[in-house]
Write a structure and sequence with these properties.
This protein has about 475 residues and is of the alpha/beta class. The chain is about 30% helix and about 20% strand. The strands form five sheets. A six-stranded mixed β-sheet has the order 1-2-3-4-5-6, with helices on one face. Strands 7-8-9-10-13-14 form a six-stranded mixed β-sheet. A five-stranded parallel β-sheet has the order 15-19-18-16-17, with helices on both faces. Strand 3, helix 1 and strand 4 form a beta-alpha-beta unit. The chain is globular. InterPro entries: Metallo-B-lactamas, Mito_Persulfide_Diox, POD-like_MBL-fold, Rhodanese-like_dom, Rhodanese-like_dom_sf, RibonucZ/Hydroxyglut_hydro.
Length: about 475
Amino acid sequence: MLLERLYDEDLAQASYFIGCQKTGEAVVVDPRRDIADYLDLATRHGMRITAVTETHIHADYLSGTRELAAATGATAHVSGEGGTDWQYGFAAERLHDGDQLRIGNLVLQARHTPGHTPEHLVFTLTDGAFADAPGYLLSGDLVFAGDLGRPDLLDEAAGGVDTRYQGAKDLFASLKRVFLSLPDHVQVHPAHGSGSACGKALGAVASTTVGYERLYAWWARYLAEDDEAGFVAELLEGQPDAHAYFARMKHENREGPAVLGPLPALERIEGEALAARLAADEAILVDTRDAAAVRAGSPAGALHVPGPAKAASYVAWVYDPATEHRPLVALAADEQAAEELRAHFVRVGVDALTGYTTTLDGLDLVPAETVSPAALEDFVAATGAAVVDVRNRTEHAAGHVPGSTQLSGGRALWHTDELPDPASGTPVVTYCQSGMRNAVVASALRRAGHRVVQLEGSYAGWSAWRHQLVGTGTR
């Protein structure tokens, strides 16, 4: 048996390539939408992908199930559980609790495990060449290393009302009925790692075991004591903000993401030609430099997406394909770097990158408006500026600039009604922890018409200034 984990550091997302080395057949579980890595693996190992499946309707990235099935001729399999509201809207084989996928000598058995989502499945995996019982579990968003999938995303991202409580209870039952019924030696391979917004305290290790989680996970004692109420309370406490684009992912993944097929070559456009398109508002520049360079000067109307490491995460904060249809032109070192950016973008359904530029020469660069921590109080008093913390609510609760309101970066563009009317000219002073997230959000809000003033040094800078004042007895 071959089992390879393909991990996307950008979205903290894991997919799995599982193959039978005897028959050369393979299945991919929870693929992302840029599929080259799966095709390369199949070629390298002399295998053919005959099945593609996923554990649930994802909220944080766009599924590659349809894309990979279309490219390989593999059969797509999706959950048929969850009731009428959670049925997929595209053609695929439906899996129900207990159904099996046979890949050569391997057997994947679907188990319905509602909680994170109503239709959620996990897959036990039996290597028939060596064993007659499962040795592995693809746990999706049910169990992570040290944590569980959050049950509140339907409220946060899909328009649900108080579904989190029933979801938490369902999760408790799924752990008892399925996860803890497995032997301790079963290896657990989750769909996310540290940094994912699908849980609040995910471990950074790639896998765990049933026995380890049974002994040491925070939730284990609640199951051991059959304390559902205590479990629900701790599970729901302190969950991070859900990004607004999650709602779009939920909808598109349920209905079926558009199949891209082979993509056209990206156009290289430089200098005056690019300046003319930007001036005519026929394209949007994506400035991929670091936050300090962007603050020093970036073309008016440009979006800041530091790349490529977190390009998918951040482009989904600043560009909404449901409302924005102008093509994107990215600053990139060369065509290969631009193609890497496009691969990240399509993971979150941003398919609008059509070109790249290797230089900003010939473009007018506008420095970002900033205010120092020392001048902030007087600036707010003089202008009536709103001070906005674009970090997560848990970060804000742990400490913030006095008088600031919290609106996380992944939600800001969708909640501009919480900010001063751009027509009023009232500034919005924004900050994050160190300045990177702030630069991303500021670019989107400026493009939306707001006068954005970035707090120099962000919260870390403000805290250092404040501590210096306290230490010198100034305040």
